[in-house]
Amino acid sequence: MTAATAPTFEHAIYRSLAGKRVVITGGGSGIGAALVEAFAAQGAQVFFLDIATEPSEALVASLQQAPVAPRFFRCNLMDLDALRATFAEIIAAAGTVDILINNAANDDRHKTEDVSPAYWDERIAVNLRHQFFCAQAVLPGMRAQQAGVVLNFGSISWHLGLPDLTLYMTAKAGIEGMTHGMARDFGREGVRVNAIIPGAIRTPRQTLLWHTPEEEAKILAAQCLPTRVDPHDVAALALFLSSDSAAKCTGREYYVDAGWLGA
Description:
Elements: E1 21-25, H1 30-41, E2 45-50, H2 53-62, E3 71-74, H3 80-94, E4 99-102, H4 117-145, E5 148-153, H5 157-160, H6 166-186, E6 191-198, H7 204-209, H8 213-222, H9 231-242, E7 253-256
Helix pairs in contact: 1-9, 3-4, 4-6
């Protein structure tokens, strides 16, 4: 799927999502673009953050006919001052964020023996740290209105122990612990916090860099369902978990991986 490609599938309609203020990180391409499309189609007010200007602007242009056109904010999530300023701008313009989707990540491969302290810090910053501080920016408002949803994105990778991804898997494992802590700390204020655990999602980046025909065959052989998982499959789960239909779902991990049970 490219940013400008219209979806050829239909999601369920959740009336409770209409008009909700939704912030999506890493929304310019891949899973993030599918999330932006899906929530915009529900009539939500979508604000998405990304560092890739061209695909993000193309996505906005392709969704001008949505009930509420999404808005793109260029933001480097590793720059915490910029992150805080961007959320402050969104909240000042639109009000309390109702739904935060912490999707942004980067799964560069690496060898453990090559990791420097600087690379460690950079990988944790790009995959874990910003999720905490994005949540920190919106949780006070959610607490004040006694309602809100945070969806943190983890990964199947560390559950399988995939090669050459130690720092990525370290960050993704931490996200599940962070999700449990936030769900406990904010549950009595009506805020739900869950983690979505994608499997091998067929995005342009993954197809270009990692998912060769040989790798795809291995993935399909390890899954219970021998079919690739697409970004819109992840978006379908995010819509449900963000809606009132999931009102009693919090503090848990929800997999969308076609039953990937082995590496």
